[in-house]
Amino acid sequence: MKCCRIKWILGLLSLAVPTPALNSAAPSVPPDIRRDSTVEAVQRVMPAVVNVRTETIVERHDPFERLLKEFWGPHYRQRGSETTYSLGSGVIIDEDGWVLTNFHVVNRATKVFVRMADGRELEAEPVVGTPFTDVALLRIHNPKRERFATIKFASDDDLLLGETVIALGNPFGLDGSVSRGILSSKSRRPPSESEPLEVEDWLQTDAAINPGNSGGPLVNLRGELIGVNVAVYREGQGIGFAVPVRRISAALAEISAPEVLKSLWFGARVRPGSAPLTVSSVQGESPAGRAGVRTGDQILQINGQAPSSFLEFNRQLADAGTARTISLLVRRGNARKEINLRLMRESDFFNSDLVKKKIGIEVEEVTPQVAAALGLGEKRGVIINEVEPGSPAARAGLQKNMIITTVDG
């Protein structure tokens, strides 16, 4: 009897204990081992990478044209213009369609087109650029106000020697190409011949950078922009260069400023990056400086709107209208402060008509574009376009095409 009771209890326990076959969970799907950080970074960035195609009309001049005309007479056919084509790369940095590329990719282009990652080809317009850092901005014609995928900027000093980097672009016109390497140097100056470039701390990488890659992004494994591909070292294998992000940020802050876009003086610069934007420098006697804007201020709003990018901030400044009145909400430390100021027109602080009347010269500001066209290197100031005979300027010996860099020392 006791033996039967023990068997009966053991039987109940066997029913109460779950069996592995009946209660085990369904086997989990193993992760795809191919989906590593490189793949994820590429998938994050590729929608913002574009192919830049340019058309340039080149006028052909025959050095023997005069002689041939005299010899052939009415049968001589003058050499006409010729259209040349080139390919490069770029990356979208603002959802309204602003594209970052190299200045040399679009310099002197008559027409510019960008091919998107989805295969569409859209016309774009070169807006501004500088040959000194080889940086240029294009704006995609966007009548439908489409919002485009963009790339994120890395921090200026967030570079690790030896870290994995990825170069994206369109080498030889091959869309959407990817190469991987390491960051070989954070401060390299490649050999150059009579070039206007001022960048002396190019990034060096062994990621494959070939013709057509120029203007494309060099990114880290977070998918953040650390540089813009610019050159390949022809004398060596596996050596390429990129303009570092801190140089790009400084150039963009300069060339997209309202002083350049709309001849309006604001007098402060903001660092490209995620919102809230941070003021990187302030000119003391500028409208911003006089109103109390300080280096380090975080800009929360401009005229009641929060700028999503530094390009949008500069556009809001440039598009302030005839009133030119700006209201800024900034964060300074733990406090918020409202700052009101009024932008100045270029004519208010640089009156070329008054200069002509007083001393008899017509002058023009030496912008980076003008300096590059005239082969002036990094010289800044004003260039003399005309000198009136008998004027004080003429008597002082000033001549056309002279550059005035300082006044009274």
Description:
About 1% of the residues have low confidence. With 409 residues, this protein is an alpha+beta fold. The strands form five sheets. Strands 1-2-3-6-5-4 form a six-stranded antiparallel barrel. The protein has a six-stranded antiparallel barrel with strand order 8-9-10-13-12-11. The chain folds into four domains: 98 residues, Trypsin-like serine proteases (Thrombin, subunit H); 93 residues, Beta Barrel (Thrombin, subunit H), CATH 2.40.10; 91 residues, PDZ domain (Pdz3 Domain, Roll), CATH 2.30.42; 55 residues, Pdz3 Domain. It is built from 13 helices and 23 strands. It is 22% helix and 34% strand. Strand 12 and strand 13 form a beta hairpin. The chain is globular and about 95 Å long.
What tags apply to this protein structure?
single chain; 409 residues; alpha+beta; Thrombin, subunit H; Pdz3 Domain; 6-stranded antiparallel barrel; 6-stranded antiparallel beta barrel; 22% helix
Quick recap of the structure?
The chain contains 13 helices and 23 strands.
The low-confidence runs, each spanning 5 or more residues with pLDDT under 50, are 12-17
Determine the strand fraction and express it as a percent band.
25-35%
The helix tally amounts to 13
The general outline is globular
What level of helicity do the residues show? 10-25%
